[in-house]
Amino acid sequence: MSESRNVNSNSKQEQLENHRVDDKGKDMTTNQGVKVSEDEFSLKAGERGPTLMEDFHFREKMTHFDHERIPERVVHARGFAAHGEFELYESMEDVTKAKFLQEPGSKTPVFVRFSTVQGSKGSPELARDVRGIATKFYTEEGNFDLVGNNMPVFFIQDAMKFPDLVHAVKPEPHNEIPQAASAHDTFWDFIANNQESAHMIMWKMSNRALPRSFRMMEGFGVHTFRFVNEAGQSHFVKFHWKPKLGVHSAVWDEAQKINGKNPDFHRADLYETIENGDYPEFEFGVQIIPEEDEFKFDFDILDPTKIWPEEDVPVKIIGKMTLNRNVDNVFAETEQAAFHPGHVVPGIDFSNDPLLQGRLFSYTDTQLIRLGGPNFHELPINRPVCPFHNNQRDGYGRQTINTGQVNYHKNSLANNTPRTVPPQEGGYEHYQEKVEGRKIRARSESFKDHFSQATLFWNSMTAPEKEHITSAFCFELGKVKSKDIRQQTVDMFANVNLKLAQEIADKVGVEPPQEGGSNVKKSSPALSTENTVFTPETRKVAVLLAEGFNGNEVKRVLEELETKGMYVEVVSEKQGAVKGADDVEVEADHTFATADPVLFDAVYTAGGSHKTQQFDANTAYFLNETFSHFKPIGATHEGKNQLDAENLSGQPGVVTDATVDDFVDRFTDAVSKHRFWDRKLV
Ligand code: HDE
Q1: Does any ligand 1 atom lie closer than 6 A to the CB of residue 222?
Q2: Beta strands in 305-381 (DSSP E)
Q3: To pair with 181 at 20 to 30 A between CA atoms, which of 160, 189, 435, 663?
Q4: What is the pLDDT of residue 682?
Q5: What whole-number distance in Å separates Cα of residue 68 and Cα of residue 87?
Q6: Residue 228: beta bridge partners?
Q7: Is residue 375 over pLDDT 80?
Q8: Across the strands, what pairs with 350?
Q9: Do the Cβ atoms of 577 and 586 come closer than 8 Å?
């Protein structure tokens, strides 16, 4: 026990710090430590002669470079991560013996990697896609990885089908098109012919697939896991992350443009807010079902295409994760992080969900090829904070120098150590579930309702959310060349909602289905993102200023907006100081060439008495784009005239009050609402 004590949030950081190297100010050496006198010219036989084999420095440098890349993740290749800590609010002792869930107030270091699924490592981040949210808890009993997504269900019910799903969604093999997109024939062919995906597709067509920020999405463990307490009693559990800033999204036109203007939009947002000390926070929730209630639901709780509606099984909030430190080196930490749903600690166990069971195989296997051997657990980012001892030895990249003669169990030479530990003293024991059955390749009857919860999701959406889903379907199927696949898909979704299917059919040029519909009338308000948290905090406001702007008043507005937690960034015609009246000067953060309205949450324009025609044209573009993406607009002074000129005055979310105080209040209110769906777009 003594060795594994004293785990606190800094311990992982300290462990990582031991591996940090700062090359700044140091002499250059080869990897063998020999000082290098010349690093620009290879060793040649004569100044104009051939390069010599003997040049060990050149060979070493080039060989290392040639081997710099490792295979990217086959899915979730594009990702970004941060360090943080998890703090427990209340003890979960009654349901689990996991140590990090016992002491209220206790803190556990975490590392979280966010990702998209389809695109390759360099792909744009605003793809319409599922997001991964994989958390490594470095607990004193070993690592617990919660490898989840931002959607609570999955496309398939059995791991056997994962390679097929991924082949279908990835760029098509004959031309490697499209990148970071599912709008193509093979994906929709898979969907229409594997209808268990219906529920997940509803999520994927919804605004959840276009998060505004990694900080503004929910996370879900998806599968049913088990909690096991000290008495050996088991409860089924589902895990949730709830972002403190609420769940928010981009709109599709905006997302597509962000991908061009700043393909690193999500990582930049996470990096910047952490650097600013606005640490992203996610509350940790659990839904718990006692074992004896396993069969009380109208769905199978082992089926990963089903949610447990929060209104039926409430989410109990038990802790909070705060991300408070960016990585030092993306390759060493983010890229080499190896997550695994099978990394569990005593008190957390598995269910028989066939998707989860298959994942338990896949993740180690994939790390072997990606990280090049069986010692990836020794990489600094993957090492547990507690000691680890066993008889595993050798292999590529081994770093531990195991001393002594004994590398086998059982033995007498080392007094039969490392010794196994009984469950009462912390040894992991798998839950002794009774299992009986015939060996069979089959899907359980209880997994065969593919549409009820898809309709539940649809019923729970507000009108703008439904509109988002409908146009997402029209876009995605609109890109499908095969009319037959478009027809099959539309016919499939008639089972979810007939009117939805008919509307899509009309837009994508296929026969509107006449039969279908669903008897499900139930809805679950927790599924709608309209019922989330709304706040102005960390929202980005573009402030358009020209020379001669109303100095003192504008300065006050900017200060007030910043005090209320917004990020205010000035856009002007040139970089450097913008001079206003009253001897006020502000520094331009961007020019119109480097900024774009899609990169901001709101725009505020105050113009300036010396504004040019070009300034007006740029402002008009900002206002119209922001307006068409339903985002808040504020205008004072010359800015107001421009609103009139663009016919935007008086529209919802367009704020033009006379006094500074009124303006700040009303504009802040508009920024907190984020979007004004009731605007009339012409
Ligand atoms: Fe994964 N998944 N997955 N997955 N997954 C991987 O592991 C796999 C599934 C998820 O940031 C791979 O290290 C199978 C569900 C995340 O490093 C691979 C099945 C959920 C990440 C793999 C699934 C996830 C991965 C690729 C079906 C949500 C990124 C690289 C049985 C609960 C982790 C890697 C990171 C990554 C396999 C389904 C989440 C190949 C076989 C369901 C967040 O092992």
Answers
A1: yes
A2: 316-326, 348-350
A3: 160
A4: 64
A5: 37
A6: 234
A7: yes
A8: 225
A9: yes
User: Cα–Cα distance between 341 and 339 in angstroms, integer?
Assistant: 7
The runs of H, that is alpha helices, within 116-264 are: 162-169, 185-193, 198-204, 252-261
Please give the DSSP secondary-structure letter assigned to residue 420. P
State residue 63's pLDDT score: 97
From the CB of 239, is ligand 1 less than 6 Å away? no
| Of the candidates 563, 548, 675, 526, the residue with the CA atom closest to the CA atom of residue 610 | 548
In short, whether 652's Cβ falls inside 6 Å of ligand 1 is no
In this predicted structure, the answer to whether residue 358 has a pLDDT above a threshold of 70 is yes
State the catalytic residue, choosing from 57, 76, 240, 340.
Answer: 76
The pLDDT-based confidence of 11 (bands split at 50, 70, 90) is confident
Taking the C-alpha atoms of residue 12 and residue 84, their distance in angstroms, rounded to an integer, is 10
Q: Going by DSSP bridges, is the β-strand pair 540-545/602-607 parallel, antiparallel, or unpaired?
A: parallel
Q: Per residue in 450-479, pLDDT tens?
A: 999 999 999 999 999 999 999 999 999 999
pLDDT tens by residue, 94-135:
999 999 999 999 999 999 999 999 999 999 999 999 999 999
State percent of the chain over pLDDT 70: 98
Give catalytic status of residue 18 as yes or no: no
Going by CA atoms, what residue is nearest to atom 18 of ligand 1? 363
- What is the C-alpha to C-alpha distance for residues 336 and 618, in angstroms, rounded to an integer? 43
Segment 219-223 shows an average pLDDT of 98
**73 Cβ closer than 6 Å to some ligand 1 atom:** yes
Q: Tell which atom from ligand 1 comes closest to the C-alpha of 162.
A: 27
DSSP strand E in 173-233: where?
Answer: 219-220, 225-228
Q: How many residues does the chain have?
A: 682
Q: What is the pLDDT of residue 2?
A: 35
Q: Are 508 and 477 within 8 A, CB to CB?
A: yes
Cβ-contact 584, 551 below 8 angstroms? yes
Instruction: Please tell me the residue having the least CA distance from ligand 1 atom 7.
Output: 363
Does the beta carbon of 240 lie inside 6 Å of ligand 1? no
- Looking at 482-566, which runs of residues are DSSP E strands? 540-545
Distance from first CA to last CA of the chain, Å, rounded?
A: 69
Asked if 459 is an active-site residue, the reply is no
